[in-house]
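Pipeline run #58 for the internal structure catalog. This entry was flagged by the ingest filter as a single-chain record with no existing model, so it goes straight to prediction. Upstream metadata was stripped on purpose; only the residue string is passed forward. Reviewer on rotation: M.T. Logging verbosity set to normal.
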Amino acid sequence: MEQVSTKRFSALDAARGLALVAMFVFHFCWDLAYFRLTPEGFTDSAGFHGFGHAIAASFVFIAGLGLTLAARSRLDLHSALMRIGLIGLSALAVTAVTYLIFPEAFIWFGILHLLALGSALSLPLIFAPAVLVAALALVALVLPLVISEPAFDAPLLQWLGLGTHPPMTNDWRPLLPWFGVMLLGLLAGRAVAAKGLPQKLGSWQPKSFLGRGFVWGGQHTLALYLTHQPVLFALVFIGATLTAPRDADILGAQSGFMRGCETQCVTTGGEAGLCTRACGCIAQDATDKGMGRAVARNQLTPDEQLKFNDITKACLRRLMPQPPAQ
């Protein structure tokens, strides 16, 4: 996620560092939702998705901008290919790790995959006519809006972004339209270079501690990207474990679940004592199967709901009087 050059501009690094902080916030919120510490549906909201798209767009745009500024006089092809290769290897590592942790939604074409492929495709366009780059950017941005075909849903073609629906994955940044954002960054870099601003950008240095922190983050973006989510995920897991009520208390005698369960049971004709024992059985079995918090918060997944229904039926059969066999 860093520009492919040894030449650095502090202003560009600061912008990249600011985008990195926004990404930390985004992933922290995602982790909270994963452990059900946010309102239900929080990460499915349009605002949350828009926030994620804005962060991704800033990284992709800055990558294109950095490519042009770094090569404004001469393209160091060896350094560029080395950097792209490093990003590509990091993308493969993300795929491998997420496949182990989230096999049903692992990342196979996320932001790093896009940056690696997009940067490689951008190399021959750095010194191409601006009108050609602008035309390609327009095509990349518009094409997914006018083409949506089931044929592009095939696994070998889905990464193009022209299919009818996105795949089940935790990070999805297909080549189209996102490559168009990188090309816009390429054009913006040309505009900056044409006005002679790189000298001003190169001479700017942060004076505040916060500014220096953003610059440092922008200089180590790839390493921070690869390490921040495991750290955040672990911290949220520890926090959720320490602050959550003990499993034995979640659906215990004083919980809202027990009161609601007993009331419903008695209302439908059950004897009070049997209802108490049946609800206690349900609460204990649900807790033993690790669904206590989900039941208490009414946030059962479809699979968990089926398991909970089976628990309820089993407890009722075990404790409630059965009609005599005919």
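catalog note: Residues 10-34 form the longest helix (25 residues).
catalog note: Residues 247-319 form one domain.
status: ready for reviewer M.T.
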